[in-house]
Amino acid sequence: MTTPEPAASPHHASGIWSLVHAERAALAADLANLTDRQWATLSLCSEFTVRQVLAHLTAGASLNPLRWLAGVIRCRFDFDKQVAMRLAGQLGATPAETLARFRSVVTSTTKAPVPTAAMLGETIVHAEDIRRPLGIHHDYPITTLTRLANYYQRSDLAVLAKGRIAGLRLQASDGPFATGSGPLVSGSTLAMIMAMTGRVTYCDELDGDGAAILGGRCPAP
Q1: Is 155 found in the same domain as 127?
Q2: Do 41 and 113 belong to one domain?
Q3: Helix-, strand-, coil-residue percentages of the chain, each rounded to 5
């Protein structure tokens, strides 16, 4: 069962949405000139290409609570099946159409019944799922990354993060993020976010006695 989003002030929610919109716009700009071969590159979500992950992001920005529930029922509570169905519905006939559909939802505030912060996480994590295999570097504001890291360190909603870092002490080397106690894991805030969400590739960028422990809790690539 999905946990309802805690009550938040309109200013708080709008502040998060502005970060989501900025990161969606930056991703769209980064993908503007990809070749067909690049669009077909496998993402860090190894079963999906970068084009498919972008379609997944479009689907997530188009899915309100009623449509989410209808999809869950239609797929008989098979959430993986629902993800695949929604992705296929937003893929379009060509990579250009996939990108155009994503651009059309850059400023969307539509979401499934998840916290607004989870939408920021989906945007940044999946953007890295796309950028990393393509060799595209993006400078995220450290304030945005710190906000997201603080969300993930206390949440297992939609993606296991809090449980993955249990018993470890995380300390960012490029910002104020710090949490937990136990063997140390240090590194960039982005690498910690990606490791917290199961991207083992980023564990190679982490140091400390706890880095190997965290890497062992990530799925195989």
Answers
A1: no
A2: yes
A3: 55, 5, 40
pTM (2 d.p.): 0.87
Same domain for 207 and 102: no
**Residue 3 placed within a domain:** no
In a 3-state reduction of DSSP, which class is residue 156?
A: coil
Whether 55 and 101 have beta carbons less than 8 Å apart is answered as yes
C-alpha 172/C-alpha 142 separation (Å) is 10
Q: How distant is the alpha carbon of residue 9 from its chain centre?
A: 23
Q: Please enumerate in sequence order all residues whose Cβ is within 8 A of that of 135, keeping only pairs 6 or more positions apart, or say none.
A: none
Which positions ≥6 away from 206 have C-beta within 8 Å? 185, 186, 187, 191, 192, 195, 214, 215
Q: How many domains does the chain have?
A: 2
**In the block, which residue shows the tokens 């504001």?**
141
- Burial degree of 77 (CB within 10 A; 0-12, 13-18, 19+): exposed
Best CA proximity match to 120, nearest among 95, 150, 80, 88: 150
Return averaged pLDDT per consecutive 10 residues of the chain, 221 residues in all: 41 84 98 98 92 95 66 52 73 96 97 92 97 98 98 91 97 98 98 96 96 90 51
> Residues near 3 by Cβ (< 8 Å), separated by ≥ 6?
157
- The region that residue 113 occupies, defined by phi over 0 for left and psi between -120 and 50 for alpha, beta otherwise, is beta
3-state secondary structure of 42: strand
Domain extent at residue 149: 142-216
Domain boundary residue among 87, 114, 134? Answer: 134
- Neighbour-count burial of 127, counting CB atoms closer than 10 A to its CB (0-12 exposed, 13-18 middle, 19+ buried): buried
